[in-house]
Write a structure and sequence with these properties.
Elements (H helix, E strand, L loop, with lengths): L2 E6 L10 H10 L2 E6 L4 H13 L4 E5 L11 H10 L5 E10 L7 H18 L3 E6 L2 H9 L8 E3 L6 H9 L3 E4 L12 H4 L8 E3 L25 H12 L3 H16 L9
Parallel strand pairs: 1-2, 2-3, 3-4, 4-5, 5-6, 6-7, 7-8
Helix pairs in contact: 2-3, 4-5, 8-9
Length: about 270
């Protein structure tokens, strides 16, 4: 299988001591490309630095997660726009709304989200979106940019059936993580993933978060890694009642088209 991890937080401090080994394990597991998530001002710079260090294999996003919305100043906006001038930055985000943790005031979250949607409108780049317990406001803000922004993926989808179908009605893409494997809070996704069209479905680890609970043996450190992406693909294929080779081929093709990634071996 050849797989693309559309969301890996490889700049996270937990990878600082063994990042090269983590990358080697991912490659050995069949992960042929990864999109490194930029989720803050500093994190977006780190994500691009990693993409530059591993050309054609790593790409990245640049954005400010709602947890960091208070850092979204005019200077931050200019910083992000400068990062997006680099072709290795293939999407705007991670951006959106998070009313579950509320680590930033909601007005600040909405402001930062709207500013980043404007970057997407201005650059034509796709969107890498975050939404948790904020569906109504999230959809309302996105509707304000109808016809202005390009394709969008709702990263790490964990919502309800109604929320899924509303996202699909807007032609948004869906990112599935190891949350699918969590019997405590993700079991509803087992049925929902059957309804996601193949050309709207992508997979991601969100490493180092969301280690799939069905991985055996479970690592003692509990850190998720991109090498577990095949496990997510296998679980997803079982729930969709399709061969894992088909799930892998479809999610990889969809991710490559969505993020406009070069084919493996392409020197661009």
């Amino acid at each position: 299988m050849q797989l693309i991890d559309i969301g890996a937080n490889l700049g996270h401090e937990s990878f600082a001591h063994d990042r090269d080994t983590v990358l080697a394990r991912a490659r050995a597991a069949g992960v042929v490309q990864m999109v490194v998530t930029g989720a803050s001002r500093s994190g977006s710079h780190e994500a691009l630095a990693l993409a530059k260090a591993h050309p054609h294999w790593l790409h990245c996003t640049a954005g400010v997660h709602p947890h960091h919305a208070l850092e979204y100043t005019d200077e931050a906006d200019a910083e992000l726009r400068a990062l997006h001038a680099d072709a290795r930055v293939c999407a705007v985000g991670e951006c959106g709304l998070d009313y579950f943790r509320d680590l930033s005031p909601r007005p600040a979250q909405r402001h930062a989200f709207e500013r980043q949607l404007q970057i997407a409108a201005d650059t034509g780049k796709p969107l890498f979106l975050h939404q948790r317990d904020a569906h109504a406001d999230f959809v309302a803000i996105m509707r304000g940019f109808d016809g202005m922004v390009g394709p969008a993926v709702v990263h790490c989808f964990t919502g309800t059936r109604d929320e899924l179908f509303e996202c699909l009605d807007h032609d948004w893409y869906i990112g599935i993580t190891g949350w699918l494997c969590d019997e405590r809070r993700g079991s509803h996704l087992r049925e929902l993933v059957r309804h996601i069209p193949a050309n709207r479905l992508m997979i991601e680890t969100d490493a180092p978060y969301l280690l799939p609970r069905t991985v055996r043996p479970q690592p003692a450190h509990r850190r998720n890694e991109p090498m577990y992406l095949p496990h997510i693909a296998e679980e997803l294929a079982r729930d969709r009642d399709e061969d894992v080779a088909l799930t892998a081929a479809n999610t990889t093709a969809t991710a490559r088209a969505f993020f406009r990634l070069p084919a493996v071996g392409d020197s661009r």
